[in-house]
Amino acid sequence: MGQYWKAVNLDKKEYLDPWTDGIDTGAKLIEQLWNGTGDCLLVLLAAHSELRGGGDWEPSDKWTGRWAGDRVIVAGDYAEPGEVGDGVYEACNTKEYTNIGKGLMEYIQELKS
Q1: What is the C-alpha separation between 99 and 16, in angstroms, rounded?
Q2: Residues ≥6 apart with Cβ < 8 Å to 5
Q3: pTM, entire model
Q4: pLDDT bucket at 50, cuts 50 / 70 / 90
Q5: Between vectors from CA 90 to CA 93 and to CA 14, what angle results, nearest 5°?
């Protein structure tokens, strides 16, 4: 089996589900390393300052740097009570948290085309 993981923004109550359309990867860390989760985190965490210097894409007001400066964790479903991340993976299954993966991957695919 193995542990499954989700990248979660605790401040905005948003997360990336690796099984989302567009990301389409397994949920284990090694599977996400090989696929779209890293691309998503790079865009979300970029403290872009309008990407000064040129040679980059035009930053998206919606996506680029959206999570920069926030409390973000990659939470596993095996977290024990009292450990960092306890209950975070499960919280993503509530209406309080929003999966932003599909829209973000559409943006990333647009950048890559």
Answers
A1: 6
A2: 18, 27, 28, 29, 32, 74, 75, 76, 77, 89
A3: 0.89
A4: low
A5: 60
